[in-house]
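Late entry, evening session. Most of the bench is empty. Finally got around to the prediction I had been postponing all week. Sequence below, unchanged from the version circulated by S.P.
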Amino acid sequence: MNKWDIYNAIGDVEDAMLLETQELLEAQPAAPRRRRAWRPVVILAASLCLVVGTAAAVTLGMTGISEANIKNPTVVESTEDMQALLSAAEADYQSELVDSDKEEGVAYSEAGDSTPKSLEEISQDWTAASENWLSEDSFGGRVALSLDLDWSTLEAYDAEGPLKMRLLSAGDGWTKTEYTADDPDLFLDVETSYLHFDASWMGEAYTAVPYGNSYFIEKKDDVIQSIYGSALYAAGEDGYVQYEYTYTPYLTNGTSYIIESSYDEVEVYTADNGIEAVIGTKNGNLWVTVQTDHFSLSMYGAYLTVEDAEEILDNLELAAVWEPDEANG
């Protein structure tokens, strides 16, 4: 299992199927995390679209985040409450004679009882890819599609720091350009022009773990299918914080729920920059989720507070092109 604890339910528009970002990242070389259990729930109704989350209409760079594209998990008290919402929504669509031959995936999250791993353990997990940069064992992983891709061919590479690079291929027009860095701020030099994710403030407030990060772009026939980024930071003697984000212009994130009763605390927070997030804590673990139709950000903190998470969100710079045609135009 790789890349931390938060699963994001991703529904393919054409196939109306549930894809979970965590499952799609399992082949990545990395880390067992303190995880929340994301469980699939399947309901009938092809066009089901529940309203989840709100946010201030704030422009961030390109098109920014607004009420129109925020799609965070809905916070409900219990699984029974979630099922009631799903049943009501399905009944509404059935009464309107909406075609329900297809299924749309729904997922929900419950916090586990485990305590955080140590910083030493998590650092070993997150730096494993860099230490084996030219090994085929570390080539795997994908975000965008349900296809079983074989990233086995190394086309080009730069194994020297501070910014390592490798170009992989999987045949049939698939390529992946991947980076790891001494400092994740170096990813700003190679990011695409239509997805801007700047977490440089975190390098001032926390200590970046060298090469405990990843950034890659996947393409099919030179058309971008997905972008992924992650980084790990130490926080004091025992704490740490890590983030992961995915951008999939041709996949739409599905409906998801957070079961509030399984957490010590859950809050919905709107940052100064307009980013809205769901924050949950339990047993020294902290989880943060931000989601739109095509973008997902997950953060996990060990021995951090809700106030720490809010400060991080206030200082993120995020902007993206939300429509596929614009992304690859």
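Two things to note before I forget:
Confidence is low (pLDDT under 50) at residues 1-35, 37-63, 93-104.
Residues 279 and 288 are 5 Å apart (CA to CA).
Will write this up properly tomorrow.
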